[in-house]
Amino acid sequence: MSGADPGEWGFDTRAIHIGQEPDEATGAITVPIHLATTFVQTAPGQHRGFEYARTSNPTRVALERCAAGLEGAEHGLAFASGMAAEDAVIGLMRPGDHVVLGTDAYGGTFRLIAQVYGDRGIGWSAVDMTDRDALAAAIRSETRQVWVETPTNPMLTVVDIAAVADVAHAAGADVVVDNTFATPYLQNPLELGADVVVHSTTKYLGGHSDVVGGFIAVDRDDLAERLSFIQNAVGAVPSPFDCYLLLRGVKTLGVRMDRHCDNAQAVAEFLASHPAVDRVLFPGLPSHPGYEVAASQMRRPGGMVSFIHTGGEAAAVAAVGATRVFRLAESLGAVESLIEQPSTMTHLSVADSPLAVDPGLVRLSVGIETVDDLLADLDQALG
Ligand SMILES: *Cc1c(COP(=O)(O)O)cnc(C)c1O
Fold it and tell me: Is the pLDDT of residue 33 over 60?
């Protein structure tokens, strides 16, 4: 039985209540959007925990406590975007350090590491994170961080977080997991041995395509202290209104994810038997190479489905232009279903890199609409 201790609450109770006690002054049941940039002190240095809004803000603190609670983490830090959160983590390194990332890392992560930090003296290597030996071979004495995404974007490859953590920790490197695709509802990387969890809260945590944000969860005090220093020193913090939208979105994360997962499973099974589909990439299908690992480290396989069209690039382009319920757009994780062709959209910037993708690949972010409408829409677009 769970009790009065928030640490023992179930996921949905934590999402709705952690960090969100009724307002002390008014009893307001939702966290106010605190716009104040500065907070009155009773004597120099005497305050109630808030001095200046870049450093800390009550609406942001509510979000940070709530989202940390969802990851089961000791510490949480909110940022203005997923990339700002990633930038803070990479900011833990110095020139001469080295980072290992996956060959199908998020394009923005690859760009940040290779094109921004690469020029500032941080080395990098991209490897297949499902290949333990390749990972061990890529790690050098200067390697400080190993970046993992699972499931990956857009190939939905599943990486064994505990196995990566074994290899990385043996070499003295920290493991950073981008948990955007899985969300804390489906996967908690810190429990699997990760040191840092990053999120683009723009996706499932916000969940309604109306806010850009990022988040970092850590257990280690040393990492929390340095990241919080960077958060304040660099200043890539979210606005109070964005924090409010995220708190509002997160309350329904569990119920939304259940529907995303139900719909994605149905879509994947439908596509698997469709003649226009060469191959479906979805960790909830037993044919997927990551099926077993996903079943052991995720509660459910998630809401993202990719597939390769039998007709190659031209057919993929035609299909993504023909859907009516699935909207042709980048991004993912919100209530409405989205369709895209990564090679000309999200992955255009990595065309000539190790991250290049099959031009016949189509990525779906399966939303929470009525499932029969989604299946009928895909059927007419593929037919
Ligand atoms: C969107 C995304 C990011 C970047 O987040 P922004 O909020 O767009 O800055 C990072 N990682 C993954 C997996 C993403 O999907």
Answer: yes
